[in-house]
## 1
Amino acid sequence: MSDQPSITAAELAHRLGGTFKGDGTRVIRAVATLEQAGPDTLSWIGSPDFLPRASKSKAGVLLVTEECSLPTDRTVIHVADPDVAVCEVLEYLAPPPDRVPPGVHPTAIVSPNAVVESTAIGAHAYVGPGTTVGAGTQIYPGVYVGARTTIGRDCVLWPNVVVRERVTIGDRVVIHPNATVGADGFGYLQRDGRHRKIPQIGTVVVEDDVEIGANSAIDRARSGVTRIGRGTKIDNLVQIGHNVDIDEDCIIIAQCGIAGSSSLRRNVMLGGQVGIIDHLRIGNGVQIAAKSMATSDIPDGRVVRGNPATDNRRFLREQASVRKFPGWVERLRTLTRRVQRLEEKVGDTPNEAT
Amino acid sequence: MSDQPSITAAELAHRLGGTFKGDGTRVIRAVATLEQAGPDTLSWIGSPDFLPRASKSKAGVLLVTEECSLPTDRTVIHVADPDVAVCEVLEYLAPPPDRVPPGVHPTAIVSPNAVVESTAIGAHAYVGPGTTVGAGTQIYPGVYVGARTTIGRDCVLWPNVVVRERVTIGDRVVIHPNATVGADGFGYLQRDGRHRKIPQIGTVVVEDDVEIGANSAIDRARSGVTRIGRGTKIDNLVQIGHNVDIDEDCIIIAQCGIAGSSSLRRNVMLGGQVGIIDHLRIGNGVQIAAKSMATSDIPDGRVVRGNPATDNRRFLREQASVRKFPGWVERLRTLTRRVQRLEEKVGDTPNEAT
Amino acid sequence: MSDQPSITAAELAHRLGGTFKGDGTRVIRAVATLEQAGPDTLSWIGSPDFLPRASKSKAGVLLVTEECSLPTDRTVIHVADPDVAVCEVLEYLAPPPDRVPPGVHPTAIVSPNAVVESTAIGAHAYVGPGTTVGAGTQIYPGVYVGARTTIGRDCVLWPNVVVRERVTIGDRVVIHPNATVGADGFGYLQRDGRHRKIPQIGTVVVEDDVEIGANSAIDRARSGVTRIGRGTKIDNLVQIGHNVDIDEDCIIIAQCGIAGSSSLRRNVMLGGQVGIIDHLRIGNGVQIAAKSMATSDIPDGRVVRGNPATDNRRFLREQASVRKFPGWVERLRTLTRRVQRLEEKVGDTPNEAT
C-alpha cells in the first residue's frame, strides 16, 4: 500500500503531547496488538496486566502510561491515556479518506423542493421533495433519502443506504452501506387465519452522534416514533422493531434483534445476536451477554446471560450443574443399592418401589 | 409535523359506521396505547382485559366494542371490532404517502423488451429484458429487476430492492428496501476438501399479498422453485434457503433462518431469530417461540420452544428443573450422610464407595 | 418456462462420458430429488443408502455409480461420481444466464483514473479513482466500488453490492446482491459513559474463489486486514467482524456472526446462526452445529454444539440428562422416605434435616 502514511516516534510524541525514550527516528507505519506488532509498528499498554506480554512483543514503539517503566532498550512514548492516544495514532496513519467529491453529481436526482446545504451528493443518489440535508454531510452514490426527511450536519450516508420519508436524522450520524432506516414496522391483525396490515404511519428519530451498521434495519413506528438516542452505536445486521425507544450511549453488537415497543435505557450494552422480545424495559447500564434472549424486564445495572436471560453468575452456576448431572445420577443409583442392602439386613420391606 | 392529518371524534364515528358518546368535536391527531395516549390521541380497548387500564388512560377518545360501557365523562366510539377499526383510523391519520411519481423516470433503464404496464418507475431503477411489471406497481429508485422476471399488479418494490432473473412475483406484493429475491442458493459439493459450486438453476415464486422485510434474502432453488405462499408476511433480515416451500398465511418474525428444502405449512408462526434446519416439515398452525431451533419435523398445531425445539410446556418444566438442580445436589449429599450413619449403626460395610 | 433447455438421456450419457441403459430418447428438463422427480426429470443415487427410495421414484432417468444395478425397466446413466455429474447436468439445463451486456453502460460512472479491463459494467454502477477491475469481471447495475480497490478477473458483483475503498478482491470471486465489503469495523473506546470511535484504517482481503452471500457484511480491519481465505464460501446475512482471519476452504452458513480478531483455520464448517466471540482460534476442520456459540478456542478437528459450544456427544448427553431430571427428583424423594423408615426402625435420629 504505497499510500500508507508514516510518522516518526519523536514527531508522534510531540503530537500526542507525550514524552519519548529511546530512538525518536523510528518510523511507524501501522498499529497492532503486542503479539502481532513488528519493527515498524506501534503497540500500546493500556493496563499493567499487559506488561508481561510487552517484553516478548516485537513492536518498534510502545505507547505506555506516564508511570510505566520498561527496559531501556525499548522505544516508548509516555502519555496520560494510551487507549485514547492509540485512537489518535490511527488517525495520523489513516490513508487519505475516500470522500464524496464536492458538488452535486450530475447523475444525482435532488428534488427542486429539497433544501440541500451539503455540497457532497454522490452519483445516482436520490433526495426527495421537502427533504433537508445539512452542511458538511456526505451522501455517497446510490443513497436514497425519501420525502420530507431531515438529515443533520456532518453526517455520512455510505453507498446504497435507504432512509425513507419523514425520518429525522441528527448531526454527525454515520450510516453504513445497505442499511435501511424507516421501513414499515411489522404489524398485522389476525382475522380468520389471514393477516391484515396495520398501517405504520409513524417515523424514526436518530439523534446526534449515532452510528448504524451495514445492512441493519430500523423500522418506523406504527404511530409515534422509533428512537435511537444520542451517541448510541449500532453494529451490522441489527434489527430494531417499530416503536422501540433506545436511550443515549448504548452499544448494540451485530445481529441483535429488538422487538416492537421495547425500551433500552442509557448505557445498555448488548453482545452479538442478542434477542429482546416486545414491550420490555432494559434498565440503565444493563449488560446482556452474546446470544442471550431477554423475555422480561431487566432492572438497572444487571449483568445477564442465557435464554431466558438470567443473572450472569446464576446462569454460569446452572450451566456447571447441568454438566455434573450425569455424575449425580450415578451417585443416586449407588445410594439406592446401599439403601436396599440396609433394608434387607434390617428386614424392612418397602411398600413402594424405586 | 405540519403535514399530520387530523379528524374529529364525530366524523371518525361516522366513517367507521360506529356510534359515539361524549364530545364529538374532539380532534384526534394520533393513535397510541392506553398508557401513552394524550388528549389529542385515540386509543382502543380490544378486549375486556384492558378495561382496568382504560380508567387511568389520558386518551382523548377510546374505541370500544358495542357492549362496552365506560364512565360517561369519556368520549368513546362503539364499533363491532376495535382492533380492525384502529387500522382504519391509522389510515385516516396517515400523512400523504411518498409515492413514486407517475411515469418512467428519465434516469431509469427499462429494457425495450420489457412489458411495463406500471407507470411508476423511479430514478436509477433497472428493469431487464423480457420482464413484465404489472399496472399499479411502484418501482422505487435504485431497484434492480433482472431479465425474464414477472412482477404482478399493485406491488411496491421499495428502494434498492434486488429481484434477480426469472423470478415470479404475484399481485399486491410489498418488498422492503435492500431485500434480495432470487440470489443463488448455497450449495456446494465437497471433494478433496474443496467446495465445488452446485449450479442454482431454479427460481423463486412469491405469491399474492406477500410482504418481505428490509434486508431479507430469499434464495432461488437449485432446480425447481423456492415458494412463498399467498398472504405470508416476512419481517426484516430473514433468510430463506433454496427450495424452501412456505405455504399460505405464515408469519415469520425478524432474523429467522430457514434452511434448504424445508417446508412450512399454513399459518405457521415463527418468533424472532428462530432457526429451522434443512429438509424439515413444520406442520399447519405450528408456533415456534423466539430464538428456538427446530431440528426435526413438527406435527400440525404444536407450540414449541428451545434448542432443540420441544413442546413448550415441557421446555418450561425442564428449564425450571435446571434451576432447582443445585438444591437437589445438596439433598443428595445429606441423604448420603444419613445412609452412612445407618450403615455404621447396622454394621454394614458397602463394597462400593459413593 | 419456455426458455427451459432440455437434453435426451443418450446425449447426456455421451456428454458425461458415461453409459446408459434403457430409453435413450427420454427427454430431461429438470433435476429433482428421488421423491420429487417426475417423468421428464433426472434424479441421482450418490450412495447405496438411497437405493431403496429409488424403486418408488418417478424419475425418468437416474444417474448412478458404475457398479450400481437397478431393475431393467429403469433408464439409468452410469458414471464415476453421480454427485459431480449432477452438477454438470444442472449446467446443461440452466436457462441462458442473465449476464451484464458487454461494454460500460452509459449511465455507469467509472473514474478516469480507474483501470477497467472488464467490459461488463452495468447501469448506474460506480467505480472509484485508482481502482482496478480485471478482465472478465461482471459488475451488475447499482454496484459501488470505492477508490483504490482491486477486483480480480472473472468475478461477479451482483446488483447493489458495495465494496468500499482500498479493498482487495481476488479472481473468480462472487459477491451476491446487497452485500457489503469493507465497512468500518465496530470499535469504540469507553470514556465517561460515552463511546469514542476507534478509527478503522485497515482493509479487507478476499482471496480467489470466495463466494459472499446476499446482504452479508464483512468489516474492514482497525489496522491491518480482515481476510477471507481462498475457496471459502459464505452464505447470506453473515457478519464478519474487523481483523477476523478466515483461512482456506471454510463453509459459513447463513446468519453466522464472527466477532473481531477471531480466526478460523482451514476447512472449518459453521452451521447457520452460529456465533463466535472475539479473539478465538477455531482449529482446522472444526465443525460447529447450527445456533451454537463458541466462547473459547476450539482445537483442530472437533465437532461441537451448544452455548457455550462443547463436544457434540457431551452436549447431546447433557441435553438428554436434563430431560430425565424431573424423573430423578421423584426417585430421590422416594429414597428419602425409605431412609427415613430405616432410621425409625434402627432408632437413629439424624442431626440434620433433609
## 2
Amino acid sequence: MQLEVSLGELAVRFGLKLQGEPGLKVNGVATLSHARAGTLSFLANSRYRRALESTHATAVLVSQADAALCPVAALIDANPYLAYSRIASLLHPPAAVPPGVHASAVVSAAARISPGVSIGPLCVIEEDAEIGERVRLGAGCIVHRGARIGADSLLTSRVTVYAGSSIGARCILHAGCVVGADGFGFAADQGTWVKVPQVGSVRIGDDVEIGANTTIDRGAIDDTVLEDGVKLDNQIQVGHNVIIGAHTAIAACTGISGSTTLGKRCMIGGMVGFAGHLTIADDVVVTGCSLVSASIHNAGSYSGGMPTVATRRWRRMVAQLRRLADKER
Amino acid sequence: MQLEVSLGELAVRFGLKLQGEPGLKVNGVATLSHARAGTLSFLANSRYRRALESTHATAVLVSQADAALCPVAALIDANPYLAYSRIASLLHPPAAVPPGVHASAVVSAAARISPGVSIGPLCVIEEDAEIGERVRLGAGCIVHRGARIGADSLLTSRVTVYAGSSIGARCILHAGCVVGADGFGFAADQGTWVKVPQVGSVRIGDDVEIGANTTIDRGAIDDTVLEDGVKLDNQIQVGHNVIIGAHTAIAACTGISGSTTLGKRCMIGGMVGFAGHLTIADDVVVTGCSLVSASIHNAGSYSGGMPTVATRRWRRMVAQLRRLADKER
Amino acid sequence: MQLEVSLGELAVRFGLKLQGEPGLKVNGVATLSHARAGTLSFLANSRYRRALESTHATAVLVSQADAALCPVAALIDANPYLAYSRIASLLHPPAAVPPGVHASAVVSAAARISPGVSIGPLCVIEEDAEIGERVRLGAGCIVHRGARIGADSLLTSRVTVYAGSSIGARCILHAGCVVGADGFGFAADQGTWVKVPQVGSVRIGDDVEIGANTTIDRGAIDDTVLEDGVKLDNQIQVGHNVIIGAHTAIAACTGISGSTTLGKRCMIGGMVGFAGHLTIADDVVVTGCSLVSASIHNAGSYSGGMPTVATRRWRRMVAQLRRLADKER
C-alpha cells in the first residue's frame, strides 16, 4: 500500500506555494528525466532547468525563479531541495520495525534495554551496555560492554561499537562501521614498538550519521569526540582524540590523523588527508583529495593536489617541477 | 588428493602448442623462481625472461617468442597469462561446498531459496530475499529483505546486501563488502543538515567481482549501477547513482563520488578520486593516486598527483610552485 | 576496584629515577591538562613543557632535562613515552576474559582448539582451523578452514580470517579487518576479464597489530607476508604478494599494490599509495598522502603530493604548472 498525498495537502503541510491544481496526487519521488505520472520531482539548481521542459512528473518542487518555466504543477519554496527531503521522507517512510529481541540475538542479562527497542537477528549486546528507547539494531550488530546507544538511534546492520563508547540520540550508523577500536599508539623501543594502551573512549553527539565501513578510534587518554549533527560518509578514518565540530559534513574516504580538531559547519570533500595535531577553523571548506598538512585558521575554501591530465602532459609537469626545484637550490 | 594432469592433456584441452614430452605431469602452479618439480609456471612478460633460466618447474606457459629460451617443457600460447588463469583454475578448484542451510542461519520463511543453494553458519536472509540456484553464502552473510542474488554467485563471508539490491549471476563478493547502504545526501537547513531519504537501489550485472570492505551506495532516487563484468578491488567506495560501464576494472582504495559515470573497459588505478557528476569515456586508463576533477571525453591514459621524492627536494618543489603562482598573480 | 600503585614502587619496577615523595599513589593516567589528583601524566616532547606548569597530576613522567620544571612529583627516564606505555598497561589492564566457548559460537568438531582459549558469541571456527593457547576471539569472529591463530593473540571483534591464512603469536586484530581475501588478479580476454585463482596464502608473524577494516589479500601463487612486529593502522590495503619487513609501522588508509616489498623499520604515513612491484629499502620514512611510484633504494625521508592552500591560490598553482609543461614541450 503506497501513500498518496494531494499537492494541496503538501502545500499546507510544508508551507509551500502551489502553482496548479491542489487536487492532483503524488505517491512517490523521481528525477525530472525518469519521472512518470503520479510522481513528484524537484529542481534544486537552476542550471539544470532545461530538464523541466520534458518531465512527466505530476508536480515539481522549484524556486520562485524557476516556477514560470515549469510545464506541470509546481510547489514553490526558497529551498526546493530541503522541501524535497521532507516530502520524500513522508512518501517513502522506512519500513516499520516492531519492537522485540530476535531469538537468535545474544543479549547479556546485565545489559540495560529500554522500552520499544528492536534487536535484530544475531546481534550481540554485552553486559552493562545501555540501549535507549526505540533504538533499532539491524542484523549482526555488536555492542560491547558498557557502550551506550541513545534513544531513537538506528544501527542498520553489522555495526560494531566497542566497550565504553557513547552514541547520542537519533544517530544512524551503517553496515561495517566500527566505533571505538584502539587508536594507533606505539612507543619506540630500540627498533621495535611497544603498544600504548588506548584508555580513552568515543563520545558521539545527537543526530550524527556514520557511513558504511567508517572507523572511529577511541582516544589514547582523553576521548575522541563527534559533536551533534556531524555527518560522515563511508570509509572515513577518524584517529584517536580527533574532535569534529557540530554539523561538519565529510565525504567518503577522508582520513583524519590523531589529535586534529575540525571546526563546526565545515564541509570536507572526499579522500582528504589531515595530518595530526592540527586545528581547523569553523566554516572551512576543503575540496576533494587535498592533503592538509597545516592548521587552517580562517573560514574559506582550501584545495590541494594536482588534478589529472593526459599522462604525457603530466610527465612533463612533474619533470618541469623537479627541474625548477633543482635549479633554485 | 591432488589432481595431476599431463602436458599433452593440457595442450589438447586448452589449445596450446607443446614443446616437450606430452607424458610429463603437473599438479599445481608456481612462480618461476619458487617452482619445484611437478609444477607449472608461466612467463607473462618477456622482460622477465631471464627467470626462465633457473626455474625448476616441470613446464612453463610462454609465448612463441620466448619458447626457444625455455629450458624445460613449454606450453605455448599467444596469451600465456590467460592460459595460465584457466589451467590454474583446473588444478586448484575451489573447495566443494555441499548445498544446504546451516542450522545456525536465520532464514525467513518468506525468503525464496532456489535449489542447490548453500547457506553458511550465522547467515541472515530476510523476508522476500531471493537467492538464485547454486548460490553459496559463506559464514555471516546478511541479505536484507527483498534483495536478489543471481545464480551461481558466491558471497565468501560476512557480506552485507541491503534491502532491495540486486546482484547478477556468477558474481563474487568478498568479506566486509557492503552493497546498498544509504548514499550521502543531506539538504542544508540554516547550518544543520536534513537527511535526504535514499530511495533508489543498487543493480549489479553478471560476472562482477567486489573486493573486501568495498562499499556501493544505493541511489538517491534512481539506481546505482555496475554493468556486467565489472571488477572492483578492496576498499573501493562507489557513491550513489554512479554508473560503471561493463568490464571496467578498478584497483583498491579508489573513490567515485555521486552521479559520476565511468565508461566501459576502463582501467582505473588504486586510490584514484573521482569528483561527482563527471562522465568518463570508454577505454580510459587512469594511473594510481590521480584526482579526476573533470570529465574525460576521449579514450587514453590520464594521470595526476605529484610523485614522491626526497622530502627536502619535495619542500623545494612545493615552495617553487607557490612562488610561481604568487608571482604571476 | 581500581589498582593503586605508589611512585616508589613504580620507580623500582620500571627502573625510573624518582623526584618527590615515594609514598604518593596513582591509580590511572591522564593528559597534563586534564589530570586530577591521583593520576600520572607524561611529557614526551619538550616543546610542550609549558603544560607542566598548570598540571594537577600527582606525578609526571619526564626526561631529565624537563624534570627541573616539573611542579609535582617526577618519574624520570630517558624515554618517558616508553615508560608511560608500560605503566599505563599496568594501571589499565584489559578486562579479563575467562576461557571457554560461548554457547552460540559455531565451532567445527574438526577444529583444533588449544587450552585456555576464549571464543566469544557468534564466532565461527571452521574445520582444520587451529587456535593457539590462550587466544581470545571477541564476538562475531570468523576463522575459515585451515587457518591458524598463534598463542596469546587477540581478535577483538568481527575479524575475518580466510582459509589457510596463518597468524603468529601475540597479534592483535581489530574489528572488520579481513585477512586472506582473494588478490585482484584477472587476465584480459578480448575486452573481458578472466579470474586468476589466488592460490597463495597470508603469513603473519608474531606481535603484529592490524587495525579496523584493514584488508590483507592472499598471494596469487606465493604468499603475502607480514614479518614480526609490523603495526598496521585502520583501513590499510595490502595487495597480494606484498612483503612488509619486520617492525614497519603504517598509518591509516595507506594502500600497497601487489608484489611490492617494504623494508624493515619503515615508518609510512597515512593515505600513502604504493605502486606495484616496487622495492622499498629498510628505514625509509614516507610522509602522509605521498604517491610512491618508484622503488626507494636508500634509507631516509620521502614525500609527495601538493599540500593544501587557499583554493584561489591552488588554481593559479595548477595553471602555472600546466603552462610551464606546455611551453617546454
